Structures are given as structure tokens and as C-alpha cells.
Amino acid sequence: MEPPSASPRRGRVHWQGSLLTVSLLIFWSPSIPAQPTIESVPLNAAEGNDVLLLLQNPPENIFIYIWYKGKKSIGNDKIASYIPQAQSNDSGPAYTGRETIYHNGSLLFQNVTLNHSGVYTLQITTILGDSEILAGQIYDDSASRSGLSGGALAGVVVGVLAGVALIAALVCFLCIRNTGRYDAFPRVLLPPRLTTMLSPLFLSSIQATLHGPWAKVPIYEVSVDHEHVGPTGPWGARISPAPHLAVISIQE
């Protein structure tokens, strides 16, 4: 009966050994170091303020920091360099007098202008000869704070004026279309007795005469003798100027 009872004990010992192995692996696993990064403080820089390109989590055993203006580490774009062990710094061709490099590799810009906005490159070299390239950027928020530029405002004003003019022209066109064409000549109303006595052809000739340019035509009145009505003769219809009616002067 002893052999069956020995097997479970061996299984328990094996399981405890597995737990011990896992614990040792977790304890001896090396921690992953944080990667170095560059942060702009503040993130959006206004013109005239100070901006710091802060180096976070720098590697150990630094030999030299070198800052460049732009995306490439080229000699002509060098701003400044710093050697921590010697506590010495050196300026380059891109140095403007407003940059200061610190012992931790951070770069300070004093009283920044629009020319300072852009990308900056940091080259880190260790004592062992390892080199690492990082990039930081200065953002300019003056455009977002100022709103629309002068050219944009002028474009908006011109667009509004053009829209108003177009609407006014459309309204005038619709009014003329609905009301019809304007008659520049006044209508001449003849007395009822004259209208009934004269023929349509004669009336049309009078209307044409009245509508002529600079025409001065006296208005006639027809007097009819009710006892002797006739087209001719001394007792017939008489057409004579009416002294009490004004002369109409029609001008184009």
C-alpha cells in the first residue's frame, strides 16, 4: 500500500518547484529603462515668452549633448553643445544669443520670436560611444490667438458685398418682370364727346402726334348743336380749341 501513496507526494513537490522557478524568474528579470523624450514647456509658445525644451529620462554616463536647429544634425545648424563632466559648453553657427543649454541637456529659449518656431534635434553621446538622436518642437500659437488675418478679413468683406449686390440685382429683376415695362409717356385721355365723334383712325393719329418728341398739341373740344347735327354746314359739329384746357407738352 505504500507505493500508491508516494506518487501524490512527488507531484506536490514538483508543483512547488515550479512556483519557485517562476518567482525567481520574475525577481531576476531586468527592468526596462524609460526612453528619453523631449517636451516643450509650455506646449504652445506665444511670441515674447520663454520656452524650455525639457529632456526627460536621459541615459546614464553622458559624454556630450549637442543641439541643432532643424531635423538633421548638421554642423552649420549647431546651436550649442555641453559636456557634463567638464561643465563646458560651446556655441555653434545657429546660436542667436537667446539659447541656454543646461547640465541635464535641456535647452532654454528666452524671448522667443516667430523664427524660433520649428523642429530642433538633440544628439546625445555616452562615454561608451553610444549615440542617440531626439527631436523636439516649438509651436507658435500666435496665429490661433489672433483669429483671421488681414487678407482673410478682406476676402470675407468682399464676399459679403458681392452677395448683397447680387441679391439686390435679383430683386430688381423680379420686380421689373412682375410689374412689366415702365411707360415713359403719359396716357392722354380725350373727352368722352370727342372720343365718340372721331373715328379710330383719327384718334390713332392724334395719339401718335402726342407721343412725338417735344410735341406741343392743343387739346380740342367738340361742341355739337343738338338741333342741327351734321358733319358739315354752319350748324354742324364744330371742333375748336378749348381755352380752358391747358396745352400738353410731351417730352421723351
From TrEMBL:
- GO annotations of cellular component type: cell surface; plasma membrane
For the keyword Transmembrane, the answer is yes
Q: Where is the signal peptide?
A: 1-34
MF terms from GO for this chain are:
protein tyrosine kinase binding
Extract the InterPro entries matched here.
CEA_cell_adhesion, Ig-like_dom_sf, Ig-like_fold, Ig_V-set
Which spans are transmembrane here?
A: 152-176
GO BP annotations, alphabetical order: regulation of immune system process; signal transduction
Q: Locate the coiled-coil region(s) and give their ranges.
A: none
Keyword annotations for this protein? Answer: Glycoprotein, Immunoglobulin domain, Membrane, Signal, Transmembrane, Transmembrane helix
The keyword ATP-binding is assigned to this record: no
* Domain Immunoglobulin V-set positions: 40-125
The text of the family note is: Belongs to the immunoglobulin superfamily. CEA family.
Q: What is this protein called?
A: Immunoglobulin V-set domain-containing protein
